[in-house]
Amino acid sequence: MKQLVTKLVDVILKRLEEQPDAVPTENGIRSWLTGQGYKKRDIDAAIKLVAPRFLSVSRENALSRVPVRTLSLLEEYKLLPEARDALARLDMYGLIDPYEREMILDRLNHFDGLVGLDELDYLLSWVVCGGRDVESQQTIFGVLEGDSQTLH
Q1: Is 86 exposed, middle or buried (0-12, 13-18, 19+ CB in 10 A)?
Q2: In this structure, are residues 43 and 34 in contact, taking their beta carbons and an 8 Å threshold?
Q3: What pLDDT, on the 0 to 100 scale, is given for residue 65?
Q4: How many other C-beta atoms can be found within 10 angstroms of the C-beta atom of residue 95?
Q5: Is the distance from CB of 105 to CB of 69 less than 8 angstroms?
Q6: Mind listing the pLDDT tens digit for each residue in 34-73?
Q7: How far apart are CA 150 and CA 152, in angstroms?
Q8: Could you tell me which residues come within 8 angstroms of residue 119 by beta carbon, excluding any fewer than 6 positions away?
Q9: Cα distance between the two ends of the chain
Q10: Contact, 24 vs 57, CB < 8 A?
Q11: 3-class DSSP assignment, residue 79
């Protein structure tokens, strides 16, 4: 690999680290590098090496921009404290996405009375775990049970 391409990759990665709040785009990086005086062929080679990084940074930024949703009074009333804590842990660890959390909270209205860990376990099995592999399911159930050694 040419040293210039290696240098370009370093420059791109440094730029991404300097601006963690900005969502990087390939066109934005290309125009910035062209303005710095680099050749199109070298930019293309460097972008090919760094392209997966764009996707992961963009996905992380998209997930981190989801606002925290507080529970409504009905949801807070229906969820017992241990179920509320378990749901918050699952959300905090990123084991369920906001859409799945909303589906679970929506299904709370279908239960008579209060929702504890057993009912939350049922909801997770039905709503979330149907499309997950066994390892993800075991991790979710470990967090649900309060196992602190689940995530490393």
Answers
A1: buried
A2: yes
A3: 56
A4: 20
A5: no
A6: 888 888 888 888 888 777 666 554 455 555 556 677 888 9
A7: 7
A8: 83, 111
A9: 36
A10: yes
A11: strand
What single-letter amino acid sits at 144? L
Report pTM: 0.53
* Strand partners for 115: 79
Residue-level pLDDT at 79: 92
Q: Which residue type sits at 29?
A: I
Residue 49: Cβ-neighbour burial (10 angstroms; 0-12, 13-18, 19+): middle
In 3D space, the residue among 90, 80, 78 whose CA is nearest the CA of residue 141 turns out to be 90
User: What local confidence, expressed as pLDDT, does residue 138 receive?
Assistant: 78
Give residue limits of the domains in the chain: 3-64, 73-144
Instruction: Show the low-confidence residues of the chain (pLDDT under 70).
Output: 1, 20-24, 52-67, 147-152
Tell me what pLDDT residue 80 has. Answer: 94
